[in-house]
Design brief:
The protein has 219 residues and is α+β, with helices and mostly antiparallel strands. The protein has helices spanning 4-22, 28-82, and strands at 85-88, 96-99, 102-105, 110-115, 127-136, 139-145, 156-162, 168-169, 184-189, 206-211.
């Protein structure tokens, strides 16, 4: 005699089989196409994410480098204003040179500033501060040292990624007009660029700083 529970079990199995027979699955071709589309979408999103990450990193690096350059220029401005004497690293005054028959300022890779006692960046006693550039790959870093020499080992780095190894000179000469200044001027060129390839991206930072305490008979 057939058990009622057995009959119900058989009916349930038949219903499940009927529903399964009525459901159609994905073919192999459909799965391959769906996966291909998914990979394309994921690849596009990944590329966009990587590009955005790289752009943010480049922006942060440029911002930090430009901020360093501005701080270095501010420090240099205060020290040049207060310096009693300004010489190059060889102990000679900043001067001009002749290139192709034209007189131009002679650029230097560093300056020596004698800061009298009481200067804001010096202290209670006189200080001799040296500023110099040190090669770092394809660019240069700017260091300040109070030692007898100026280098990366004796100084403190104030700026990086300079595109010019000789940022110090007298101001550019204007031969078309007769110029007269109340104070000796020191031209400082701290243009920086963190990009190692391509063009553009240079942050131009230059200034002609008045040496307020230097005798105009010579720097």
């Amino acid at each position: 005699m057939t058990n009622v529970s057995d009959m119900r079990h058989v009916a349930t199995l038949r219903a499940r089989c009927s529903r399964a027979a009525g459901e159609s699955g994905f073919t192999l071709v459909e799965l391959v196409v769906a996966l291909s589309i998914l990979l394309v979408v994921i690849g596009s999103l990944t590329g966009a994410l990587i590009s955005a990450t790289n752009s943010e990193a480049d922006l942060n690096t440029r911002f930090q480098t430009q901020t360093q350059a501005r701080l270095a220029m501010t420090k240099l401005t205060r020290e040049i204003h207060c310096a009693g004497t300004i010489l190059d690293l060889n102990g000679a005054a900043l001067t001009t040179t002749t290139v192709g028959g034209v007189t131009v300022p002679k650029a230097a890779n560093g300056v020596t500033l004698t800061l009298p006692a009481g200067c804001p960046t010096g202290g209670a006693s006189a200080v001799t501060a040296k500023w110099c550039t040190v090669a770092s790959g394809t660019t240069w870093d700017l260091y300040r040292s109070v030692s007898t020499t100026c280098s990366s080992s004796t100084g403190v780095r104030w700026a990086s990624s300079l595109i010019n190894s000789t940022p110090f000179s007298l101001p550019p000469l204007n031969t078309s007009v007769s110029e007269s200044h109340d104070f000796t001027l020191v031209h400082v060129d701290l243009n920086v660029n963190t990009r190692t390839s391509g063009t553009g991206g240079t942050y131009d930072l230059t200034n002609d700083i008045a040496a307020l305490n230097v005798d105009r008979s010579g720097t």
